[in-house]
Here is the input.
Amino acid sequence: MPAVRWLSNGKDFRGIVAGTTRIGKVELGMNDIHISGLPLDEAARAEAVRHLNGPIQVALVPAATAPTLPNPWRRLPPAVACLVADPGDWAAVASTNPLPASRDQQPLRSHLATAFGQGQAIVLDSRTMATDAPLPSLTPTEAPLPDWLRNSVEGIADAVGPVRSRTDLTALQAGILQLGDFLTPSHEHSQSIEGRGKRRAGDYWHAINHRREPDYGNAKYWFRHVGNHPLFAELAAVVPDLAGEFSPAIQSRSQSLIESGRLDPFHVVDLVSDACRRHDRELIRFAERLQWIEMVALLEWTLQDATG
Here is the structure.
């Protein structure tokens, strides 16, 4: 599978699938360009057009978001980002060819899968665009796993290789499935590598899975297996900024999440439990944002462990 040029950092990654929504068409000079997803201003459109030449037929422009709302299309290689985040919610997509008008995932994403797989798609530098992307629920309702996603997850090694740790690759698969709210197959992957991996990422995903079921006691059990993951220190650094976007009551509650410069995962479990039990909308929104930051960052760590 040819490499995809990811221009935002100069590295090459190989893509699998991507998705788009809200199909429209704009015409720029002699270029008939089809636009979907978030709106592009004239300067961004012109930049996209500049790259749509030769073999490149699709240009994806991620929205520039704050650290408290990480955009997977900025933080992850396309091969992973396209499996966990619909570009229509996080980016604008420009194409020289018509894009499928249906949001049904199979025809829509397989169209762009071909472009990424054949080296005909690129991810450009981020632009400031407003996004109100939906985030995964604290306690999701699980849907059947689509065949296209199952096949993409099974073949993820071909997209992110070379793989140095098959154990952590399994953890990566568990994480991708977890972000899609496919808890049962995610659990099967994480449970199969219990206590293994460079940083026991599988156990971390296992703990998140039980926190979301919800089975809070079991979640704490697996967090005890995780130990002191370096992500806890990263999360402790971002919690104050995240809490600052909420009420003084949330800011006060957030202070209990941090101990000795690291996020306490057991206190996070209690936070999620309280938010869901009390149906506290603001606390739920705060916990969902924290969960999103956690899961995107954990995917980064897991990918690093699998390929580094």
The first helix runs from residue 42 to 51. The chain has a mean pLDDT of 86. The radius of gyration is 19 Å. The first strand starts at residue 4 and ends at 6.
